[in-house]
Design a protein that fits this description.
11 strands, two-stranded antiparallel ribbon, binds magnesium ion, binds cytidine-5'-triphosphate, alpha/beta
Length: 231
């Protein structure tokens, strides 16, 4: 069964607050996006990788990796979901789509393989995720006021933090995302579109080093993890 990776890389990286989008920040010898693409390229099972870039991105095509025969690119939209949908239009309905954030360069080969094996074995879509280790409180108000109060402690036994890759049959993912879009439901990952359409994706536990580089303080952490992995 063919697996096509979609890498949303069309974000502006507002929270990183740097002069260039975070996927183009260098860690060691390579940019964050290149580290991410090398991880995906290390799995021969992934036959193609579609990188979704911003229409004003003039940097991607200057990277040597852009000419890799397994890599192509297309233009994304103003939300992550729109960018993923743009990539999905290039994927055959009967392929598996494996969506992985450009901003998660520290994912390991072993964890990607673990997800792919679990999903193919169960013939059901799934995502990488970590068990929540903090004690999670629900607040009485939205968190934008100064000192909201606690109304309850959530039962951690059932809580997971979603990561990527997230892997689904392309047709199911496309239809679920379009349905959510039509109904005005905003999505922060692929699984939530499937859940919205009453699917139950698998949770596949990954290592905690699969962080999303989001804020400046994530950079030293990503650098350390990549160094530990030998990059
Ligand atoms: N992304 C995308 N298209 C968008 C927005 C985000 O392809 N319109 C991608 C980002 O490039 C990133 C991934 O989705 O690889 C996860 O999004 P996020 O971490 O939020 O990245 P940014 O949107 O770039 O950052 P910020 O929200 O801080 O601006
Ligand atoms: Mg964003």
């Amino acid at each position: 069964q063919s697996i096509i990776a979609i890498v949303p890389a069309a974000g502006g990286g507002q929270r990183m607050n740097m002069s260039l989008p975070k996927q183009y920040i260098k860690i060691g010898q390579a940019t964050i996006l290149e580290h991410t693409l090398h991880k995906l390229l290390s799995l021969p099972l992934i036959s193609r990788i579609i990188v979704v870039i911003s229409p004003d991105d003039h940097f991607f095509t200057t990277l040597a990796i852009a000419s890799n025969p397994r890599i192509s690119f297309t233009h994304g939209g103003s939300t992550r979901a729109q960018s993923v949908l743009a990539g999905l239009t290039l994927v055959n309905d009967d392929s598996w789509a494996l969506v992985h954030d450009a901003a998660r360069p520290c994912v390991t080969h072993a964890d990607i393989k673990k997800l792919v094996d679990a999903v193919i074995q169960a013939n059901c879509g799934g995502i990488l995720a970590t068990k929540v280790t903090d004690t999670i409180k629900q607040s009485s108000h939205q968190s934008n006021i100064d000192f909201p109060t606690i109304i309850k402690t959530c039962d951690r036994e059932y809580l997971w933090a979603a990561a990527t890759p997230q892997m689904f049959k392309a047709k199911l993912l496309k239809e679920s995302m379009l349905k959510a879009k039509e109904d005005g439901v905003s999505l922060t990952d692929e699984a939530s579109a499937i859940e919205y359409c009453h699917g139950q994706p698998l949770l596949v536990e990954c290592q905690r080093d699969n962080i999303k580089v989001t804020r400046p303080e994530d950079l030293p952490l990503a650098t350390l993890y990549l160094q530990e992995q030998g990059y």
